[in-house]
């Protein structure tokens, strides 16, 4: 939300509610630390990839990257997710590549389709972990989001920060977009900056697309194929302008760009009206998992992959591998 990026009269009007939110969240956190509220310790180590702000910061690409890196090193990984945006009430449940994004959420389906990792969803993270461990022999559990879910004990905490928006106006909800204050970053094992403005002590990450994939035919094209004509773009992610700016940086001309809410459900009529059959409709991979069943031949998605330097990759993975004895 734009009002969370600057300070205005509305910010100060809402600031007492932000103070109340902060006091409640800090009190709840203290109760868990003092064991007045029960927390769960997993039989295997847990790593949380989360954030301190509302909205998409790039957590899912980090989870995909981390799963792939650990799989390459022989680590047996499982992932848990809340399944946000899904309509299912059946918890916990395993997610497969054929699962409905409408039922289990778009991000879990994307992660499984990209990596083949065992993944379970439930608002109760303990239930998801127990389900995974009943059916798979795992070395590590990665939690997609859940930094503030203190009912789950953790061994590692990674926080992803949007390099462009950073921490907005610095207020916690509802006057700002923060769940916790930036000082929370002092207690995590890694701060990953998604963008070009990593600060001292942060790990620089970039999201790079290599090609476009057709939703209906699975045909793959170089991105240069879309530079010679106007295109339509949509994005139902936490910060749609990031996708549109990426397209523009790739010299892909846009006839129009429409942003939707994060986890927005789509239907054929809604999207087919945006682009005629001669105009490519470009979307994110996260949107594509919700549209394959009714896709048209002019619909394409651009999968992105997280990129880190070799030095940062080693620094991020070494503590995990040491913990696991790998």
UniProtKB/TrEMBL annotation:
The keyword Cell membrane does not apply. Keywords: ATP-binding, Kinase, Lipid A biosynthesis, Lipid biosynthesis, Lipid metabolism, Nucleotide-binding, Transferase. ATP binds at residues 53-60. Pathway: Glycolipid biosynthesis; lipid IV(A) biosynthesis; lipid IV(A) from (3R)-3-hydroxytetradecanoyl-[acyl-carrier-protein] and UDP-N-acetyl-alpha-D-glucosamine: step 6/6. Its EC number is 2.7.1.130. It catalyses: a lipid A disaccharide + ATP = a lipid IVA + ADP + H(+). The keyword Disulfide bond does not apply. Pfam families: LpxK. GO terms for molecular function: ATP binding; lipid-A 4'-kinase activity. GO terms for cellular component: plasma membrane. InterPro entries: LpxK, P-loop_NTPase. One of its GO terms (biological process) is lipopolysaccharide core region biosynthetic process. It comes from the Bacteria. Belongs to the LpxK family. NCBIfam families: lpxK. Transfers the gamma-phosphate of ATP to the 4'-position of a tetraacyldisaccharide 1-phosphate intermediate (termed DS-1-P) to form tetraacyldisaccharide 1,4'-bis-phosphate (lipid IVA). This is Tetraacyldisaccharide 4'-kinase. The lineage of its organism: Bacteria, Pseudomonadati, Pseudomonadota, Gammaproteobacteria, Pasteurellales.
């Amino acid at each position: 939300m734009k009002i969370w990026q600057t300070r205005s009269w509305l910010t100060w009007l809402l600031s007492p509610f932000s103070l109340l939110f902060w006091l409640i969240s800090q009190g709840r956190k203290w109760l868990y630390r003092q064991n007045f509220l029960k927390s769960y310790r997993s039989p295997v180590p847990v790593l949380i990839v989360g954030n301190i702000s509302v909205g998409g910061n790039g957590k899912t690409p980090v989870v995909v990257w981390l799963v792939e890196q650990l799989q390459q090193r022989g680590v047996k990984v499982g992932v848990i997710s809340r399944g946000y945006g899904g309509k299912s009430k059946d918890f916990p449940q395993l997610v497969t590549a054929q699962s409905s994004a409408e039922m289990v959420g778009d991000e879990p389906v994307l992660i499984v389709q990209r990596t083949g990792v065992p993944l379970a969803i439930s608002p109760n993270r303990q239930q998801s972990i127990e389900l995974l461990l009943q059916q798979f022999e795992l070395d590590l559990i990665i939690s997609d989001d859940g930094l503030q879910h203190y009912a789950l004990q953790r061994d590692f905490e990674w926080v992803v920060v949007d390099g462009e928006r950073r921490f907005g106006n610095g207020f916690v909800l509802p006057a700002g977009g923060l769940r916790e204050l930036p000082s929370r970053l002092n207690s995590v094992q890694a701060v990953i900056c998604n963008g070009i403005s990593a600060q001292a002590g942060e790990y620089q990450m970039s999201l790079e697309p290599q090609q476009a994939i057709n939703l209906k035919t699975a045909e793959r094209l170089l991105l240069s194929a879309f530079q010679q004509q106007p295109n339509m773009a949509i994005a139902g992610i936490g910060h749609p302008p990031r996708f549109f700016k990426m397209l523009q940086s790739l010299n892909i001309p846009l006839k129009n760009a429409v942003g939707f809410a994060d986890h927005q459900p789509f239907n054929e009529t809604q999207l087919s009206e945006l682009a005629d059959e001669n105009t490519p409709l470009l979307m994110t991979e996260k949107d594509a998992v919700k549209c394959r069943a009714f896709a048209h031949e002019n619909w394409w998605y651009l999968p992105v992959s997280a990129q880190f330097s070799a030095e940062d990759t080693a620094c991020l993975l070494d503590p995990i591998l040491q913990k696991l004895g790998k």
